[in-house]
Specification:
Chains A, B, C: This is Aromatic ring-hydroxylating dioxygenase subunit alpha. Three copies of one chain form a homotrimer. Chain A is about 25% helix and about 30% strand. The first copy, chain A, has helices at about 125, 145-150, 155-160, 170, 200-205, 280-310, 325-340; strands at about 10, 20-25, 30-35, 40-45, 60, 65, 70-75, 80, 100, 105, 130-140, 175-180, 185-195, 215-225, 230-235, 250-265, 265-275. In chain A, a hairpin with a 2-residue loop joins strand 9 and strand 10. In chain A, helix 2 (about 145-150) packs antiparallel against helix 7.
Chain lengths: ~350, ~350, ~350
C-alpha cells in the first residue's frame, strides 16, 4: 500500500508551532511537537497509560504531556515522568525519525535504523538564489497513487482546469516519458508557438511580458519516490529557447506536489509553487497561492469520485495509454519499494 | 433484490436537459445524457480510461465527454475519440436500453436483448384527454419494497397523514385484494357517506363542489410490476356512484408512484398526481404538488426508521394481515421475477 | 459487554412526560411511555405488525399506539387492539421491568423474573433531609467502562478540568482503594491545608465561607454496580475534620454519575450534583448545573478520542497504576457479573 522506509512530508512548520499536532501518516497516528530546543519530535499518538492520543495534550519543558493524566513523554518515546509514579518500567511509545528541512517537516514511518536525513532531496529553490515559494495543504479523498497519476498526466488540465491552465494544445502535443536510474520518472511535453492560457498570461504580465505574445510552453513532470511530483512549468517568448530561454524572456516555476498517504483511500497534499521571478514580491506570492489553491481544489471532486468508482469495481482493469506512462512508471517504482519491504520467503 | 429485466423510471426529462446525469439504479451507476438528436442515452458511469464517472463530464456534439482526460463516448458505449489516441481497441462501456415516454425517462438495467420499449405501460392520463399531471422526486432511505408496502396499505394515512388525507373511516372500511393475470395487484377500499378529509375538501372547493357535503370515497391501489403503484383516488357526492359518478359530481385523481431501487436500502421515488379536473389550471397543479410533496415527505422518517429496525432484526417475521395483502401479493410477483432471472440449476 | 440483569437509569422523568421515548439501552431499542395511571412502561421498540419503531407513535388511553398503522400496545407487550383486526394471536413484544424511583426512570434489560425493584439503591440525598439535586444528560461516544475509569481516577481533573476543579495537589495526594463485600469499590483521596480550586471557592462563597481560607479537601469515589459512580466531594476549613467537619465549616456534595450503556462504543451519562447546603436555593442549583455541565463536557472529546485509539489498537495492554485501581476493581466486578450471566458449560 505505502512504502514505509521513506521520508514523507508530515507537516508545514507552523502547524507544529505551539500546540502538538496529531496526524495519521501511512495509517500510523503520530503526535508531533517541538522540544525545548525547537526540534520537532514524533511518537506514536497513543499514551502508554490509558491510550488517549498524546496530541490532545500540551508541551511543557519540551516534553509532550498527556492531557488526560499528565504522563510526560520525551522525543525518544520514553516516559519522563508522571505525577506520583515511578515510570522507569513504563512501555515505550514508538518514536519516529523526523526532520525539519527545506520548509517542511519530514517523517520516516519505517525502520528507524534506515533513516538517513541526508536522503531528503534538496529542492532546487533552496539550492539556488532567486526563488520564492508559496503553497498550502489539502486533505484528498483518494489513494495517494491516484493523485500521482493525476500529476503525471497533465492532459487533465484541458478538462479539469479549462479556465486557468488548460488549453487544447496540451492534448495535441506528444508526451515523452523516461525512467531514470535514480527511480525518478520524467514525463514531458512541449508546445511551441501557442497563446498562453489565463494563468500564464497573468504571470507574463506580472513579469513584464506581453501576455498576448506567442509563447513556447513546457511541462516537465518529475516523480520523486516515494510519492512526490515536481513539475517544471513555464512559458517563454516564441523561439527564445523555451525552458532554456534567457530569464528576461520567460516565466518559469516549479509546481511542488508533496504527497503523503494518510490511509488506503486518503492522502495529504502539500501543494505549492516555487517561482524564479520577482521572488521579493510577497503580494504576488499570495496571489499565486490563491490561484493555485483554486485550481488544485478542482481536482478534489473528480479524484473522490474516481476513488469511489474504483472501490466499486475493484477488478476492472484501467487503460494504460501513452499519456499514462508517467503514472504507470511511477507505480512500478512504488511497487518495487513495496516488494523490497515485504517479508522474505 | 431487484428484478433487472424491467423498465424503471430513471429520471424526469428536465434532469437530463443540458448536463449529464449520474444516477445509481439497481445498484448500477449509470450516466444519462442527450445525444445530438435529443435522444437520451445511458451507459455505465465508469470511464474505460481511468475509471472516473463519465457523468461528471459534459456533452459535446451529442457525445458524452469525460471531464478528466477528454474521452468521448457514444450512446452505444463505444469510445468515439480521445485526444491523441486511437480508440478502436478501447473496451466498451455497458450501454443500457433507455427511452423517454409519458413524461419520464425509463431505463432497462437487465439484458438489453429482452428490452421492448412497447412494454412500458401507457398511463391513463396520457391515453385520454382532459388530464393534468404534477409531481416530484424524493430519495427514500429504505428498500423499495417497503415503499410498495406503504402504498398498497393506505390505512397508514390515518396515522401518518392524519391532518390531510387520513380519516378514521379508512381503518374501518374493509379492503379487497386481487391478483390479476397480468401480474398486477389491486387492493381497494370504498367508504360511503362520510365527510371528506382536508385535502379532498380543498379539491372539492377547487372543483366547485361543497366541501362540507357528504361523499363516497374510493382508493384503488394498483401494483404494476416491477415496483410501481398507481392509485385511483377521489370523492363523489354521496349516492352518485362513487368512482363511476358523473364528472360534475366527483373529484378524481390518480396518485402516481414510480419507484426505482437505488440500493438494497434506498430508492428513488417519483411521485405525482394526475387529475381529471381543471387540467388547464397550472396554479392548481402547483398547489397540489406542494400539498402532495408535504404529505409524502411524512412517510420518509417512518420508512427510514422501519428500515433501520428491520436491519437490526433481520430474522423477525412480520405480520401479514388482510390490510397487508396488497403488499404481500406484490412481493410474490417480485419474487417470481427474481426467480425467473436467477441462474438455472 | 454489559451485564443485563441489573437496574440501569433509562431516562429522566420529564423525558417521558407526554410523548413516548425511544432509547437504546444495552443495545436493545426500547420504547418508554406512561400508562393511564402515569406509570412508566417499557417494551421493545418494534411493532409486531411491520417493524416500525413504536416510539414514533403516540399514547392514547395509556396505550402506546404505533404511528404507522395504529396497532395499540399495552405495558405487558400484548397488542390491545388494531383497527379492523383481531389481535389475540399477535406475537408479543418483549416487555421490560421498569420503575420510577429517586428522580429517575430505571429499566432492567435482563431476565424479568430476576428484577426486584427494591434492589434499586436509595441515594443518600433521598434518604435524608436537607439535600438539593440538579443534573443533566450527555450522550458519550465511548464504552461505558471508559467513563467509569474516568470517574474512578480523579487525577484527570488536574489536566482535563484545570480551570475549575483540577489542582496540582490531587496528583500529589496518595489514593486508597478498597473492594467492599457488596461489590462496591471505593477509591479515596484527601488533601490537607490547600487552597480550594475555582469551583469550590465559588461553593464556599455561596455557603458563607471565606474562599481564600485554607481547606481540607476530600474525594471519595464509590463504584456501585453495574456501572454507576457516586462521589463524595467537598472542602472543609482546615483542621475541622474534613468530611466529618461540622456543617457550618464545610461545603459537601455528592457527584452523581449514573452511566448506562447504549452500545459497545457509546453510553448515556446522567450526571448531577446533590448538595447538602442551601437546598432551597434553586438559582444556586441552576448555577451549579451549568458549571458542572461545562466541566463534564470537557471529558467528552478525550473519551471519544481514547475510544478511537483503543479500537485502532485492540490488543495493546494499558497500564494499571495505583491511580487506576478503582477502575480496575470496578471492571473486575463487571466481569464477574458478565460471567454469572454467561451460558453454562
Amino acid at each position: 500500500m505505502f512504502p514505509l522506509n521513506a521520508w514523507y512530508v508530515a507537516a508545514m512548520p507552523d502547524e507544529v508551532a505551539q500546540a502538538p499536532l496529531g496526524r495519521r501518516i501511512c495509517d500510523l497516528p503520530i503526535a508531533f511537537w517541538r522540544d525545548a530546543q525547537g526540534q520537532v519530535q514524533a511518537v506514536e499518538d497513543f499514551c502508554p497509560h490509558r491510550g488517549a492520543p498524546l496530541s490532545l495534550g500540551f508541551v511543557r519543558d519540551g516534553q509532550l504531556v498527556c492531557g488526560y493524566h499528565g504522563l510526560a513523554m520525551g522525543g525518544d518515546g520514553k516516559t519522563v515522568s508522571m505525577p506520583g509514579q515511578r515510570t522507569r518500567g513504563f512501555p515505550c511509545a514508538r518514536a519516529y525519525p523526523v526532520a525539519e528541512r527545506y520548509g517542511f517537516i519530514w517523517v520516516w514511518p519505517g525502520e528507524a535504523a534506515k533513516a538517513d536525513v541526508n536522503a531528503i532531496p534538496v529542492p532546487l529553490w533552496h539550492a539556488q538564489e532567486g526563488w520564492a515559494y508559496g503553497g498550502g495543504l489539502y486533505h484528498m479523498p483518494c489513494d495517494y497513487r491516484l493523485l500521482v497519476d493525476n500529476l503525471m498526466d497533465l492532459t487533465h488540465e484541458t478538462y479539469v482546469h479549462a479556465s486557468s491552465i488548460g488549453q487544447k494544445e496540451i492534448d495535441e502535443a506528444p508526451v515523452a516519458t523516461q525512467l531514470l536510474p535514480s527511480g525518478q520518472v520524467i514525463t514531458e511535453r512541449r508546445m511551441g508557438g501557442i497563446h498562453a492560457p489565463p494563468f500564464w498570461q497573468a504571470a507574463m504580465t506580472a513579469n513584464g511580458l506581453d501576455p498576448q505574445a506567442k509563447v513556447d510552453r513546457w511541462q516537465v513532470c518529475r516523480f520523486v519516490p516515494p510519492s512526490n511530483v515536481l513539475i517544471d512549468v513555464g512559458v517563454a517568448l516564441e523561439g527564445q529557447g523555451g525552458f532554456d530561454a534567457p530569464e528576461h524572456a520567460k516565466v518559469a516555476s516549479v509546481v511542488v506536489d508533496y504527497i503523503t498517504p494518510e490511509s488506503a483511500t486518503s492522502c495529504w497534499y502539500f501543494w505549492g509553487m516555487a517561482r524564479h521571478f520577482k521572488p521579493e514580491d510577497t503580494a504576488l506570492t499570495d496571489a499565486i497561492r490563491e490561484g493555485q489553491g483554486k485550481i488544485f481544489a478542482e481536482d478534489m471532486e473528480i479524484l473522490r469520485r474516481q476513488q469511489e468508482n474504483l472501490l466499486r469495481w475493484p477488478d476492472r482493469a484501467l487503460l494504460k495509454l501513452n499519456i499514462d506512462a508517467g503514472g504507470v512508471q511511477a507505480r512500478k517504482i512504488i511497487d518495487q519499494m513495496l516488494a523490497a519491504e515485504a517479508p522474505q520467503g
